[in-house]
Amino acid sequence: MSETDKVHDLTPQEVAKGLVEGRYLLIDVREPNETAAEAYPEGTTAPLSHFDPATLPEPNGKTVVFACRSGKRSVTASLAAQAAGKPYNHHLAGGMIGWKAAGLPTKTGG
User: Fold this and answer.
1) FRET label pair with 109: which of 26, 29, 67, 79, CA 20 to 30 Å apart?
2) Spatial CB neighbours of 58, under 8 Å, sequence gap ≥ 6
3) What mean pLDDT is reported for the chain?
4) What CA–CA distance (Å, rounded) separates 93 from 71?
5) What's the pLDDT tens digit per position in 19-74?
6) Closest to 67 in 3D by CA, of 80, 82, 48
7) Per-residue confidence at 3, pLDDT binned at 50, 70, 90?
């Protein structure tokens, strides 16, 4: 099994729907300068450069979904969280690039 088999891809549409329905907790692992310029409307941040699975917010029954710019750092974050014993194995495939391509809204000011 490859490492990426441990991380499940979710489409931008699936994530947007899950956020509206209150099923997902979106954690954006991009850096502060990136999230200040453009952010997910319902995301919380945990920059990968300082990533510590122990400090992630409590999901309170929601599925944690990691997100980044293109979908690479979110896989890294998911694998790191799993290595720390967290059952967080979902990420936004395509990241912010895919989110915007799907016509979904963003906000400024992270």
Assistant:
1) 79
2) none
3) 94
4) 5
5) 999 999 999 999 999 999 999 999 999 999 999 999 999 999 999 999 999 999 99
6) 48
7) low
21-26 contacts at long range (C-beta below 8 A, 24 or more positions apart) = 22/62, 23/62, 23/63, 24/62, 24/63, 24/64, 24/65, 24/90, 25/57, 25/59, 25/60, 25/62, 25/63, 25/64, 25/65, 26/65, 26/67, 26/92
Place of tokens 């967290």: 86
**What does pTM read for this prediction?**
0.94
Whole-angstrom distance, CA of residue 76 vs CA of residue 46: 13
pLDDT of residue 12: 98
DSSP sequence for 48-77: GGG--GGGSPP-TTPEEEEE-SSSHHHHHH
Nearest to 66 by CA among 80, 55, 54: 80
